[in-house]
Amino acid sequence: MKHWTGRRVLVTGAYGFLASHMIEELLSRGAIVTGIVRDRPAESYLQLSGCDKKIRIAAGDITDIEFCRRVINEQQIQDVFHLAAQAIVGLANRSPLSTLEANIRGTYMLLEACRVLLADRCPLEAIVVASSDKAYGDQEQLPYVETMPLMGRHPYDASKSCADIITQAFAVTYRLPVAVTRCANLYGPGDLNFSRIIPDTFHALIEGRRPVIRSDGTPKRDYLFVKDGVEGYLALAEAVSAGKCRGQAFNLGTGQPVPVADLVKRIIQVTGAHVEPDILGAAAGEIKHQYLDSALAGKLLGWQARTALEEGLAITFSWYKNYLS
After folding, report:
1. What is the pLDDT, as a whole number, of residue 285?
2. Of 86, 87, 101, 263, which one's alpha carbon is 20 to 30 angstroms from that of 156?
3. Active-site residue identified among 45, 136, 156, 233
4. Closest alpha carbon to 58 in 74, 80, 35, 87
5. Residue 126: enclosing H or E segment and its boundaries?
6. What is the pTM of this model?
7. Phi and psi at residue 214, in whole multiples of 5°?
């Protein structure tokens, strides 16, 4: 906790789901937070929690290197959490260029800004870049481990593979104090992207509708409670700041994959509804099974997922029920 008191922290994509929870936790630990935002949404967890009024907002685009340099330099940033991304898989499939521009160009522009400023003795100590379990693509063996090749083949997956590799290149070539997270599917209070399975299912059930499963229900995924994910990011930043784990990537997941149909049944049980999901079997452009081995994070960071799925879903249901009412 004391590590973050008074530290000057930059969070990109500040209105995003994970970023909002990250900022909330950083503020609770006494950090001084600056958030980079490009587009201001009508609503986000950052606004609903009131945290947007407690941070400094820098409006601009992370693909603009001069903007990145100015913000990091003027705010004398010590830690960067690079979370800005176009993260909607369906949108990436329909419009790949905007996804590639944001996720790849946005990453290397931010890293280059950090590299140049470090050469000028900027106080920057730690940079954590958000990759994804989707960066691994389809693998013959599961769970994913950090030594596997990055083989994203769909637009969003490929953008994360590229950004991940570029980040490691900056660490190796320029000794940038940077590390990578590869998170499982995050869920929890405040996710207002209702194209995702958990928000969409809660939304349907609270409104008295049958939930829809776009796939055939068999794909397995790893679902990580957002506050556990935040703890992993903070632990990694602390390690990098101490001169450890630089250039390394870490899986953050539960190691307990759940088929989509089973997940939806558990959500139905949490809400107390008595319905059956509508299984469309129509999903395309997604990896069949994805789940992570997070032993390395346990060994080097002392991190593990602590929130059981049923507990996390109950907390999340309570939030959505209050929000949607």
Report:
1. 59
2. 263
3. 156
4. 35
5. strand 126-130
6. 0.96
7. -70, -35
pLDDT tens string 7-47: 999 999 999 999 999 999 999 999 999 999 998 888 999 99
Q: Are 107 and 82 in contact (CB under 8 A)?
A: yes
- Domain boundaries along the sequence of the chain: 2-188+224-254+290-307
In terms of Cα–Cα distance, which of 67, 69, 55, 76 is closest to 124? Answer: 76
Q: What is the CATH number of domain 2-188+224-254+290-307?
A: 3.40.50.720
Are the CB atoms for 145 and 251 separated by under 8 Å?
Answer: yes
Burial of 17 (0-12, 13-18, 19+ CB in 10 A): buried
Q: Which letter does DSSP use for residue 104 in this model?
A: I
User: Cα(20)–Cα(24) distance, rounded to whole angstroms?
Assistant: 6
Reply yes or no on whether 156 is catalytic. Answer: yes
Q: Quick count: other Cβ atoms within 10 Å of Cβ 92? A: 25
What secondary structure, in 3-state letters, does 210-244 show?
A: CCEECCCCCCEECEEEHHHHHHHHHHHHHHHHCCC
Query: Can you state the angle between helices 17-28 and 226-241, rounded to 10 degrees?
Result: 60
The whole-number pLDDT of residue 90 equals 81
Classify residue 39 as exposed, middle or buried by CB count within 10 Å of its CB (0-12, 13-18, 19+).
exposed
Give the model confidence (pLDDT) of 112-169 as tens digits.
999 999 998 899 999 999 999 999 999 999 999 999 999 999 999 999 999 999 999 9
